[in-house]
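tool=predict chain=A
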Amino acid sequence: MQPNFLVLAAAALIPMVLGFIWYNPSVFGKAWMEASGLTEEDTKKTNMLLVLVLSFVLSLMLSMSVNFMVIHQNAIYSLVMGPELQNPASEQSLWIKDTMAKYGQNFRTFKHGALHGALTGLFFVLPIIGTGSLFERKSFKYVAINVGYWIVTLTLMGGVICAFA
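tool=predict ok
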């Protein structure tokens, strides 16, 4: 199963677009800056072009990872991985072709991908940001703003990737 790089690139824009909204001063931006200890002057010292380029690269990496979490059919290849897959007449290739013909579109909906994206946010992002925040002595507000952003982001990314990739 070949990844759809156009869909993955589009999904990589989701964290950036949602970030512009989520961290806008009219939404959670002021509260986030206060909770993270940043000032407006700190943000003006940032090279925004570099931040945006690196953010997109990191978001693209994330979309590739989400692809494997939300599309179950990707796992089938790991069951029979090997040089035999290069031969279209091999037993493994024929089995994959038959299995994908029968089940290749199962669970390929926005709703299903969104569920897996939300669970990823809850069970991966929350423990990572939560643990780091405990040691950094960050507030509950800081954790809630950042984890909330990632849960919504991964929910949308999962839905888009699962439905369209």
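The chain has one domain: 5-71+108-164. The chain has a mean pLDDT of 94.
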